[in-house]
Amino acid sequence: MRKITLEALQVLEAINRCGTFALAAKELHKVPSALTYTVNNLEQQLNATLFDRSGHRAKLTAIGELLLKEGQKLLISAEQLEKRIELQQKGYEEQLLIAYDQLIPFHNLIFLIEDFYQACPEIGLKVTGEVLGGCWDALLSHRATLAIGVTGETPLRDDIAMLPLGPIEFAFLVGKHHPLANHQQTLTNNEISTYRSIAVADSTRGLTTRSSGILPGQSILTVNTMQEKIDAMIAGLGIGYLPLTQAKPYIKSGELIEKNVQRLKTKGIVSLAWRPSLIGKAGLWFIEQLSNKTIANRILKMSNFD
Protein backbone atom coordinates (compact mmCIF):
# COMPACT_ATOMS: atom_id res chain seq x y z
CA MET A 1 0.00 0.00 0.00
CA ARG A 2 1.31 3.43 -0.95
CA LYS A 3 2.17 5.66 1.99
CA ILE A 4 1.91 8.88 -0.03
CA THR A 5 -1.40 9.72 -1.71
CA LEU A 6 -2.32 12.58 -4.04
CA GLU A 7 -4.84 13.79 -1.48
CA ALA A 8 -2.12 13.99 1.19
CA LEU A 9 0.13 15.94 -1.19
CA GLN A 10 -2.71 18.36 -1.94
CA VAL A 11 -3.19 18.93 1.78
CA LEU A 12 0.55 19.46 2.26
CA GLU A 13 0.67 21.96 -0.59
CA ALA A 14 -2.37 23.91 0.66
CA ILE A 15 -1.04 24.18 4.23
CA ASN A 16 2.36 25.37 3.04
CA ARG A 17 0.81 27.94 0.70
CA CYS A 18 -1.85 29.21 3.13
CA GLY A 19 0.40 29.17 6.20
CA THR A 20 -2.08 27.63 8.65
CA PHE A 21 -4.17 24.48 8.88
CA ALA A 22 -7.31 26.57 9.33
CA LEU A 23 -6.87 28.61 6.15
CA ALA A 24 -5.91 25.53 4.15
CA ALA A 25 -8.97 23.68 5.45
CA LYS A 26 -11.21 26.55 4.37
CA GLU A 27 -9.70 26.51 0.86
CA LEU A 28 -10.10 22.73 0.57
CA HIS A 29 -13.63 22.82 2.01
CA LYS A 30 -12.64 20.60 4.91
CA VAL A 31 -12.56 20.97 8.68
CA PRO A 32 -9.10 21.65 10.21
CA SER A 33 -9.19 18.38 12.12
CA ALA A 34 -9.39 16.46 8.84
CA LEU A 35 -6.15 18.09 7.66
CA THR A 36 -4.50 17.44 11.01
CA TYR A 37 -5.46 13.77 10.74
CA THR A 38 -4.08 13.53 7.16
CA VAL A 39 -0.74 15.12 8.10
CA ASN A 40 -0.37 13.09 11.31
CA ASN A 41 -1.13 9.88 9.46
CA LEU A 42 1.39 10.70 6.73
CA GLU A 43 4.05 11.53 9.32
CA GLN A 44 3.42 8.19 11.03
CA GLN A 45 3.57 6.31 7.74
CA LEU A 46 6.87 7.98 6.80
CA ASN A 47 8.22 8.07 10.37
CA ALA A 48 9.17 11.71 9.76
CA THR A 49 8.11 15.16 10.94
CA LEU A 50 6.82 17.24 8.04
CA PHE A 51 5.81 20.49 9.78
CA ASP A 52 7.43 22.59 12.49
CA ARG A 53 4.42 23.57 14.61
CA SER A 54 6.29 25.67 17.17
CA GLY A 55 5.35 29.03 15.61
CA HIS A 56 2.12 30.72 14.59
CA ARG A 57 2.49 29.50 11.01
CA ALA A 58 2.94 25.93 9.87
CA LYS A 59 6.46 25.66 8.48
CA LEU A 60 7.78 22.69 6.52
CA THR A 61 10.77 20.84 7.83
CA ALA A 62 13.60 19.92 5.46
CA ILE A 63 11.96 16.52 4.86
CA GLY A 64 8.61 18.24 4.35
CA GLU A 65 10.13 20.57 1.75
CA LEU A 66 11.65 17.60 -0.09
CA LEU A 67 8.33 15.77 -0.06
CA LEU A 68 6.42 18.80 -1.33
CA LYS A 69 8.99 19.61 -4.02
CA GLU A 70 8.80 16.13 -5.51
CA GLY A 71 5.10 15.78 -4.71
CA GLN A 72 4.22 18.87 -6.75
CA LYS A 73 5.57 17.10 -9.82
CA LEU A 74 3.16 14.23 -9.16
CA LEU A 75 0.26 16.64 -8.68
CA ILE A 76 1.02 18.36 -11.99
CA SER A 77 1.32 15.01 -13.77
CA ALA A 78 -1.98 13.85 -12.31
CA GLU A 79 -3.71 17.06 -13.38
CA GLN A 80 -2.31 16.73 -16.90
CA LEU A 81 -3.42 13.10 -17.09
CA GLU A 82 -6.95 14.06 -16.03
CA LYS A 83 -7.06 16.70 -18.79
CA ARG A 84 -5.81 14.20 -21.37
CA ILE A 85 -8.49 11.68 -20.38
CA GLU A 86 -11.18 14.37 -20.43
CA LEU A 87 -10.16 15.54 -23.92
CA GLN A 88 -10.08 12.00 -25.25
CA GLN A 89 -13.50 11.29 -23.82
CA LYS A 90 -14.81 14.38 -25.62
CA GLY A 91 -13.30 13.21 -28.92
CA TYR A 92 -10.42 15.68 -29.11
CA GLU A 93 -6.83 14.93 -29.97
CA GLU A 94 -4.33 15.57 -27.19
CA GLN A 95 -2.12 17.26 -29.77
CA LEU A 96 -2.88 17.96 -33.42
CA LEU A 97 0.06 17.44 -35.79
CA ILE A 98 -0.08 19.73 -38.82
CA ALA A 99 2.28 19.83 -41.78
CA TYR A 100 2.09 22.71 -44.26
CA ASP A 101 3.85 23.22 -47.56
CA GLN A 102 6.17 26.22 -47.55
CA LEU A 103 4.51 27.41 -50.74
CA ILE A 104 2.11 28.84 -48.17
CA PRO A 105 3.82 31.40 -45.89
CA PHE A 106 3.46 30.50 -42.23
CA HIS A 107 2.18 33.99 -41.40
CA ASN A 108 -0.80 33.25 -43.65
CA LEU A 109 -1.79 30.50 -41.19
CA ILE A 110 -1.50 32.57 -38.02
CA PHE A 111 -5.05 33.93 -38.12
CA LEU A 112 -6.35 30.37 -38.43
CA ILE A 113 -4.23 29.19 -35.49
CA GLU A 114 -5.44 32.14 -33.40
CA ASP A 115 -9.06 31.28 -34.19
CA PHE A 116 -8.38 27.64 -33.30
CA TYR A 117 -7.02 28.55 -29.87
CA GLN A 118 -10.13 30.62 -29.26
CA ALA A 119 -12.25 27.55 -30.01
CA CYS A 120 -9.98 24.88 -28.49
CA PRO A 121 -7.62 26.53 -25.97
CA GLU A 122 -6.56 23.27 -24.31
CA ILE A 123 -5.43 21.44 -27.47
CA GLY A 124 -1.74 21.45 -28.37
CA LEU A 125 -0.59 22.09 -31.91
CA LYS A 126 2.64 21.03 -33.58
CA VAL A 127 3.10 22.76 -36.94
CA THR A 128 5.97 21.88 -39.28
CA GLY A 129 6.87 23.42 -42.64
CA GLU A 130 7.56 20.95 -45.45
CA VAL A 131 8.72 21.15 -49.06
CA LEU A 132 7.57 19.24 -52.18
CA GLY A 133 6.92 15.65 -51.07
CA GLY A 134 7.46 16.47 -47.40
CA CYS A 135 3.77 16.98 -46.61
CA TRP A 136 2.83 13.60 -48.10
CA ASP A 137 5.70 11.96 -46.26
CA ALA A 138 4.64 13.56 -42.96
CA LEU A 139 1.07 12.32 -43.45
CA LEU A 140 2.05 8.78 -44.44
CA SER A 141 4.69 8.39 -41.72
CA HIS A 142 2.38 9.70 -38.95
CA ARG A 143 4.43 12.84 -38.42
CA ALA A 144 1.22 14.71 -39.24
CA THR A 145 -2.48 13.93 -39.16
CA LEU A 146 -3.37 16.95 -41.29
CA ALA A 147 -1.42 18.39 -44.23
CA ILE A 148 -2.13 21.85 -45.64
CA GLY A 149 -0.95 22.58 -49.18
CA VAL A 150 -0.06 19.13 -50.51
CA THR A 151 0.98 19.07 -54.17
CA GLY A 152 1.93 16.49 -56.78
CA GLU A 153 0.47 13.07 -57.34
CA THR A 154 -1.81 11.65 -54.68
CA PRO A 155 -0.47 8.44 -53.08
CA LEU A 156 -2.52 5.41 -54.01
CA ARG A 157 -4.08 4.99 -50.59
CA ASP A 158 -7.71 4.53 -49.56
CA ASP A 159 -7.13 5.93 -46.07
CA ILE A 160 -6.50 9.51 -47.18
CA ALA A 161 -9.12 12.20 -47.78
CA MET A 162 -8.47 15.38 -49.75
CA LEU A 163 -9.96 18.80 -50.30
CA PRO A 164 -8.66 21.16 -53.05
CA LEU A 165 -7.79 24.59 -51.65
CA GLY A 166 -6.93 26.47 -54.84
CA PRO A 167 -4.16 27.38 -57.29
CA ILE A 168 -0.70 28.74 -56.61
CA GLU A 169 0.78 30.98 -59.33
CA PHE A 170 4.53 31.18 -59.86
CA ALA A 171 6.83 33.92 -61.08
CA PHE A 172 10.36 33.60 -62.47
CA LEU A 173 12.63 36.05 -60.65
CA VAL A 174 16.14 37.37 -60.44
CA GLY A 175 17.76 39.69 -57.90
CA LYS A 176 18.27 43.33 -58.84
CA HIS A 177 22.06 42.81 -58.90
CA HIS A 178 21.96 39.61 -60.96
CA PRO A 179 23.39 39.70 -64.52
CA LEU A 180 19.90 38.97 -65.90
CA ALA A 181 18.33 41.92 -64.09
CA ASN A 182 18.61 44.20 -67.14
CA HIS A 183 17.73 41.53 -69.69
CA GLN A 184 14.69 42.79 -71.60
CA GLN A 185 13.76 39.91 -73.91
CA THR A 186 11.94 36.72 -73.03
CA LEU A 187 14.42 34.30 -71.48
CA THR A 188 14.92 30.99 -73.24
CA ASN A 189 15.67 27.75 -71.42
CA ASN A 190 19.20 27.81 -72.89
CA GLU A 191 19.81 31.25 -71.40
CA ILE A 192 18.34 30.30 -68.04
CA SER A 193 20.35 27.08 -67.81
CA THR A 194 23.65 28.99 -67.87
CA TYR A 195 22.88 30.54 -64.48
CA ARG A 196 22.69 28.93 -61.07
CA SER A 197 19.23 28.00 -59.80
CA ILE A 198 18.22 28.30 -56.14
CA ALA A 199 16.21 25.27 -54.98
CA VAL A 200 14.59 24.33 -51.69
CA ALA A 201 15.37 20.73 -50.74
CA ASP A 202 12.54 18.21 -50.72
CA SER A 203 11.86 17.53 -47.03
CA THR A 204 10.58 13.98 -47.55
CA ARG A 205 12.27 11.33 -45.43
CA GLY A 206 10.90 8.16 -46.95
CA LEU A 207 9.40 8.98 -50.36
CA THR A 208 11.26 9.55 -53.62
CA THR A 209 12.62 13.10 -53.63
CA ARG A 210 11.30 15.57 -56.17
CA SER A 211 12.60 18.75 -57.74
CA SER A 212 10.84 21.61 -59.48
CA GLY A 213 11.85 24.30 -61.96
CA ILE A 214 15.36 22.93 -62.56
CA LEU A 215 16.68 22.59 -66.11
CA PRO A 216 18.98 19.73 -67.24
CA GLY A 217 22.62 20.51 -66.51
CA GLN A 218 21.82 23.63 -64.52
CA SER A 219 24.00 24.46 -61.51
CA ILE A 220 22.02 24.34 -58.26
CA LEU A 221 22.32 25.94 -54.84
CA THR A 222 20.09 23.94 -52.48
CA VAL A 223 18.71 25.50 -49.29
CA ASN A 224 16.29 24.30 -46.60
CA THR A 225 13.52 26.89 -46.50
CA MET A 226 11.61 29.18 -48.83
CA GLN A 227 12.88 32.23 -46.96
CA GLU A 228 16.48 31.07 -47.45
CA LYS A 229 15.75 30.78 -51.17
CA ILE A 230 14.35 34.31 -51.26
CA ASP A 231 17.37 35.67 -49.37
CA ALA A 232 19.78 33.90 -51.75
CA MET A 233 17.96 35.24 -54.80
CA ILE A 234 17.97 38.80 -53.42
CA ALA A 235 21.73 38.45 -52.87
CA GLY A 236 22.15 37.49 -56.53
CA LEU A 237 23.38 33.98 -55.79
CA GLY A 238 20.99 32.46 -58.28
CA ILE A 239 17.62 32.58 -60.00
CA GLY A 240 14.40 30.63 -59.83
CA TYR A 241 10.67 30.45 -59.34
CA LEU A 242 8.72 31.66 -56.32
CA PRO A 243 5.03 31.59 -55.50
CA LEU A 244 3.76 34.92 -56.83
CA THR A 245 2.09 35.85 -53.54
CA GLN A 246 5.39 35.44 -51.67
CA ALA A 247 7.32 37.29 -54.38
CA LYS A 248 5.08 40.37 -54.60
CA PRO A 249 6.52 42.30 -51.62
CA TYR A 250 10.04 41.88 -53.02
CA ILE A 251 8.95 42.77 -56.55
CA LYS A 252 7.28 45.90 -55.15
CA SER A 253 10.43 46.88 -53.22
CA GLY A 254 12.60 46.29 -56.29
CA GLU A 255 14.73 43.61 -54.60
CA LEU A 256 13.50 40.96 -57.05
CA ILE A 257 12.63 41.43 -60.70
CA GLU A 258 10.08 39.30 -62.52
CA LYS A 259 11.15 38.03 -65.93
CA ASN A 260 9.27 36.65 -68.90
CA VAL A 261 10.39 33.15 -69.75
CA GLN A 262 9.87 30.87 -72.70
CA ARG A 263 8.06 28.24 -70.66
CA LEU A 264 6.55 29.57 -67.46
CA LYS A 265 6.05 27.08 -64.67
CA THR A 266 2.38 26.13 -64.64
CA LYS A 267 -0.01 26.88 -61.80
CA GLY A 268 -0.05 24.30 -59.04
CA ILE A 269 -3.18 23.18 -57.24
CA VAL A 270 -2.65 22.77 -53.52
CA SER A 271 -4.95 20.68 -51.34
CA LEU A 272 -5.75 19.79 -47.78
CA ALA A 273 -5.17 16.11 -46.95
CA TRP A 274 -5.84 14.08 -43.84
CA ARG A 275 -6.25 10.56 -42.51
CA PRO A 276 -9.90 10.24 -41.41
CA SER A 277 -9.19 7.38 -39.02
CA LEU A 278 -6.82 9.60 -37.00
CA ILE A 279 -8.80 12.84 -37.02
CA GLY A 280 -10.63 14.01 -33.92
CA LYS A 281 -12.64 17.14 -33.23
CA ALA A 282 -9.59 19.43 -33.39
CA GLY A 283 -8.68 18.20 -36.86
CA LEU A 284 -12.32 18.43 -37.94
CA TRP A 285 -12.31 22.09 -36.88
CA PHE A 286 -9.48 22.83 -39.35
CA ILE A 287 -11.16 20.81 -42.10
CA GLU A 288 -14.41 22.70 -41.60
CA GLN A 289 -12.65 26.07 -41.65
CA LEU A 290 -10.63 25.30 -44.78
CA SER A 291 -13.74 24.05 -46.54
CA ASN A 292 -14.78 27.70 -46.53
CA LYS A 293 -13.48 29.19 -49.81
CA THR A 294 -12.97 32.61 -48.25
CA ILE A 295 -10.66 31.15 -45.61
CA ALA A 296 -8.90 28.89 -48.13
CA ASN A 297 -8.28 31.88 -50.40
CA ARG A 298 -6.96 33.89 -47.48
CA ILE A 299 -4.21 31.40 -46.64
CA LEU A 300 -3.16 31.28 -50.31
CA LYS A 301 -2.90 35.05 -50.70
CA MET A 302 -1.21 38.03 -49.12
CA SER A 303 -4.00 40.50 -48.43
CA ASN A 304 -1.57 43.42 -48.22
CA PHE A 305 -0.59 42.97 -51.84
CA ASP A 306 -3.43 41.09 -53.59
UniProtKB/TrEMBL annotation:
GO molecular function terms attached to this record: DNA-binding transcription factor activity; transcription cis-regulatory region binding
Q: Hey, which family's this protein in?
A: Belongs to the LysR transcriptional regulatory family.
Q: Which UniProt keywords apply?
A: DNA-binding, Transcription, Transcription regulation
Q: Which residues form the HTH lysR-type domain?
A: 4-61
Q: Which Gene3D superfamilies match?
A: 3.40.190.290, Winged helix-like DNA-binding domain superfamily/Winged helix DNA-binding domain
Q: Enumerate the PANTHER family for this protein.
A: HTH-TYPE TRANSCRIPTIONAL REGULATOR (PTHR30126), LYSR FAMILY TRANSCRIPTIONAL REGULATOR (PTHR30126:SF4)
> Record keywords: Plastid included?
no
Q: Does the keyword Transcription regulation apply?
A: yes
What is the source species?
Answer: Candidatus Berkiella aquae
InterPro entries documented for this protein: LysR_HTH_N, LysR_subst-bd, WH-like_DNA-bd_sf, WH_DNA-bd_sf
Name the gene that codes for it: allS
Write down what this protein is called: HTH-type transcriptional activator AllS
